[in-house]
Design goal:
Number of domains: 2
Oligomer: single chain
Structural class: alpha/beta
Bound molecules: N-(iminomethyl)-L-glutamic acid, fe (iii) ion
CATH architecture of the largest domain: Alpha-Beta Barrel
Largest sheet: 8 strands, parallel
CATH topology of the largest domain: TIM Barrel
CATH superfamily of the largest domain: Metal-dependent hydrolases
Length: 391
């Protein structure tokens, strides 16, 4: 259960904050700024809005190739699962990404990240999951981690271990066995900046892995110090939520088909819900996640793009926020919290996503007059300045 109110958001009119060593040390009204310490530099926000750096806590941003051919098929009524069953979907991107050189993946990902940067995003999670072999997965994780050197955004890598069973394995069970016996030690000893605990993700779905597979996987990985999160209840009720909660997952993601019992379990846990309205929109999913019930039980709800070449080739966190209101029924305040404070919770980070004492100097000045301008008035809010200090 969340310890913060879902809808708590208190704008400070004529506010000010003090920053020292890249950390916020005071927040309040401009009239109440303490006499000392005297600031070395003063920035005048000119009455504009100061927001925490935005956070996209669920993406698959590193991949090669395109699946734009699937867009027409989706519009003609084929489902995401139909396309996967006919040999399309994730496996296509696995083939293309595995064949792509490291440098090419790095270059295209760097280029894509400019979009997030210009939208005011200062933290992004990026998953692997398009490798046919363990080496391909390691290549992806290295690409993801090295993006940190070239972009002014904090990059949170996630090992998406069980996404689609590679053809070399005779069964999903055999793939899970391999991930436990060989994958675990190799990925755990990979020398990359995970930005905290290493994170494992998986896809629990009739076209993915069963709850039993996920249980075995998470059992082994959490014992080795990984934190977990899970794609689940996306195309159908799959029963992954309770397994994820049992392993103290940081988040369960998608949730269009979550049921009442699972919502109660979620509410009694520390696990967040991550809502992904863009794949819902793109794949023409018929069922919305039960937002009203999750709200009633105070389940923390983050919002993210799920950017990927198949179910969500839409590179816009503001659009995800907009769709979370207009399609899923979040309030604009919940949407704004979903891409800031609640998204930080999914990254298991308390040092960002809100403007409070002790958090990072990670914020942006926006020309807007209310949260609606950012969330529902797409393109109306103008990003004036990003202030982001990695130290
Ligand atoms: O979150 N559903 C599983 N994984 C991704 C889609 C990946 C893809 O289609 O390439 C998702 O929707
Ligand atoms: Fe995803």
């Amino acid at each position: 259960m969340t310890d913060e109110a879902q809808d708590e958001y208190t704008p400070i009119i004529d506010g000010a904050l003090l920053v020292k060593d890249a950390t916020i040390i005071w927040v309040g009204g401009a009239r109440d700024i303490p006499e000392s310490p005297k600031p070395d530099v003063i920035h005048d926000g000119k009455g504009l809005w100061l927001l925490p750096g935005l956070i996209d806590c669920h993406t698959h941003l590193v991949f090669a190739g395109s699946r734009s051919n699937e867009f027409a098929r989706l519009r003609q009524g084929e489902s995401y699962a139909d396309i996967a069953a006919s040999g399309g979907g994730i496996i296509q991107t696995m083939r293309q990404t595995s064949a792509a050189p490291y440098e090419d993946l790095l270059e295209t990902a760097n280029h894509r990240l400019k979009q997030w940067s210009s939208d005011g995003v200062t933290s992004i999670e990026i998953k692997s999951g398009y490798g046919l072999t363990l080496d391909d997965e390691l290549k992806m994780l290295r690409v993801i981690a090295s993006l940190q050197q070239t972009v002014d955004i904090d990059i949170f890598p996630t090992f998406l271990a069980a996404h689609k069973c590679p053809p070399e394995f005779l069964s999903h069970d055999a793939h899970i066995d391999f991930l436990i016996t060989e994958g675990l030690d190799t990925v755990a000893s990979l020398d990359i900046n995970w930005h905290g605990q290493p994170t494992i993700d998986a896809y629990c779905d009739p076209i993915g892995y069963t709850p039993h597979h996920i249980d075995r996987l998470f059992n082994a990985y959490t014992k080795a110090g990984f934190q977990c999160r899970l794609h689940t209840e996306q195309t159908a009720h799959s029963g992954g939520t309770e397994v994820a909660i049992r392993h103290q997952a940081i988040s369960v993601d998608h949730l269009e088909h979550i049921n009442d019992t699972q919502i109660l379990q979620l509410a009694a846990s520390q696990t967040s819900a991550t809502l992904l309205p863009l794949p819902y929109l793109h794949t023409r999913e018929a069922q919305c996640p039960p937002v009203e019930k999750m709200r009633a039980h105070r389940v923390p709800m983050a919002v993210a793009t799920d950017f990927n070449p198949g179910s969500s080739p839409i590179a816009s966190l503001p659009l995800a926020a907009y769709c979370s209101t207009n399609l899923f029924g979040l309030s604009t305040t919940e949407a704004l919290l979903g891409i800031t404070r609640q998204a930080a919770r999914v990254l298991n980070k308390t040092d960002r996503g809100q403007l409070t004492v002790g958090t990072k100097a990670d914020f942006s000045i926006w020309d807007m007059s209310q949260p609606d301008d950012l969330v529902s008035g797409l393109g109306l809010a103008r990003l004036v300045q990003r202030v982001y200090n990695k130290a």
